[in-house]
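Handout, section B. The chain below has 261 residues.
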Amino acid sequence: MSANYKNWVPNGMITALTAGTAVLGVGTAALMCVNMNPNLKKALVGTAGAGTLLCGAMTARSIYAHGKFSYDGNRQLSKEIVEGTAKYVTLPEGGIGLDVGCGSGALTIACAKRNPQGRMIGIDRWGKEYASFSQQLCEDNSDAEGVQNTEFHQGDACKLDYPDKYFDAVTSNYVYHNIAGVNKQELLRETLRVLKKGGTFAIHDIMSKARYGDMQQFVSELYDEGYEVVELIDTTNGMFMSKGEAHILGLKGSSLLIGKK
């Protein structure tokens, strides 16, 4: 059995967009054959045609992204990001790390592989909007990889069910930008709350100013609070992807916040 980390662009999305494009295309063709008021016909055909083009463009973009993210494809961008983030997670002997929003368990498992002397806990709320991801999938993937130092639980990134200074490392990958209506810097602080003094952190997300506010100021605040090392790395400048890829894939602003508390 091999691990199945899924794809960040679900097959169901591509199927739905393809079907939508086909329906709109057929509808546009049908309208062109209907006998009706010329002005109304022109408006309807124009609207339907525009919808077909838009849906078609979204389908093409989704197929492109699916290929880029696939663990079985040539690019394997997801794998590169996961393993690149895991490199910054270090556990001491007997230490415990936390992966917030673990999805299919990829980052949790990657960190556990690099730190056999400790163990990793992955949490996620999963849920119906992410129906292809589950706790069972994470556990199956861990077994498939032959990794025994992982465990997976339900959890809420907005309110972690752990006391202050509990973990030796914390990490997360492309999670917080999906949480609507919550201040992203507060989410970061909630994650860092459970990190021990001297612990390491590596959090990767779309940290654009529109989503996260002034992250350079946030870095300065952490230094003022006594953090030993804090660094914000642009991952769209060749580290994980090119700026062109980031733009096409909707990942513009991707950054990695790393450091030591």
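Note. The chain has a mean pLDDT of 95. Compare this with the example in section A.
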